[in-house]
Amino acid sequence: MSLSKRLLKSAFTQSVLSYLLASYIRLVMLTNRKEFHIHPAAAGLMRGEGNAIFAFWHGRMMLLPAINPPRKMHVLISEHRDGKLISQVIGHFDQDTIVGSTSKGGTDAVRNIVRLLKKGDNVSITPDGPRGPNQQATIGIATVARLARKPVMPVTFSASKHKRMRSWDRFMVAKPFGRIVFCIGEPIMVEEADEAARAAIETAMNDLVEKADAL
Q1: Dihedral (C-alpha) 82, 83, 86, 87: value to the nearest 10 degrees?
Q2: Whole-number Å distance between alpha carbons of 183 and 63
Q3: How far apart, in whole angstroms, are the C-alpha atoms of residue 38 and residue 54?
Q4: How many structural domains is the chain composed of?
C-alpha cells in the first residue's frame, strides 16, 4: 500500500473513531444522573461573565467536553500520537484545540494560550499531561496564569459506574446508567509563577478530586 493510501486510511479510521468516542461520551451524559457542585466564586465564570484557565487532570478528561461555558473553549493537547484523535473528539463538541505544551516557557503554545485568554476565550489545560507524573502539576500552568492575568479554575468529575485504565494516569472511563458528579473549584489567581503557586494549584485540584469521589 502506498504512503498516501496509508495516510488516507489512517485519517479515515481516526475520523470514524473520533465520532464513535464522541457518541459514547454523549451516551454517558444522556444516561447518567448528573450533579454540578460549583464554588460560588466560579459561578460567574461558568455563566460566561469572565474567562479562565480550566485545569483538569489527564485521567479525568473524558467528560470535560460536557463542561462548556458560553465563551469559546480551547483545549491544549500535546503533539503525542493520540493528540490528533483527541482534537477530533473535542471538535464534535465545538471546542478548538491548541497543539503544544506549557512545560517549556516561550513556546508558540504558551503565546497562543496567553493571546486567547487576553482575547476573552477560555482555555483548558491538563497540568500533568501528556506523560505525568499522575496528578502532579508542572510550573507551566502557573506561568500561563501569571502572563495572562487570568484565574486557574480546578475542574473534575467522578462517576459511580466507571472503569480505571492501567495507563500512567489511571484514566477514568465513565459508564452509562449511573451517577456523575462534576466539581468546579474556587478560581486561583497567580501573582508569581513560583513553586508556591504551582503547589497551590496542584493541591486544589487534588482536593477537588477527593471531593468528587466522596460525593
Answers
A1: -150
A2: 12
A3: 13
A4: 1
pLDDT one-digit tens code per residue, 114-131:
999 999 999 999 999 788
* Closest residue by Cα to residue 92 from 68, 71, 76: 68
Going by C-beta distance under 8 Å and a sequence separation of 6 or more, which residues neighbour residue 134? 57, 58, 59, 128, 168, 169, 170
Range of the domain at 34: 3-214
- Helices 83-91 + 3-31 axis angle, to 10: 50
CA distance 152 to 124: 10
Q: Grid coordinates in use for 115? A: 493571546
Bridging pattern class, strands 73-77 and 122-125: parallel
pTM for the structure as a whole: 0.91
Q: pLDDT digit of tens for each residue in the chain (215 aa)?
A: 554 455 445 778 888 999 999 999 999 999 999 999 999 999 999 999 999 999 999 999 999 888 889 999 999 988 766 778 888 999 999 999 998 876 654 488 899 999 999 999 999 999 997 888 999 999 999 999 999 999 999 999 999 999 999 999 999 999 999 999 999 999 999 999 999 999 999 999 999 999 999 99
Cell numbers placing 60: 479525568
Measured CA angle at 70 (ends 64, 71), to 5 deg: 90
Cα–Cα distance between 48 and 120 in angstroms, integer? 10
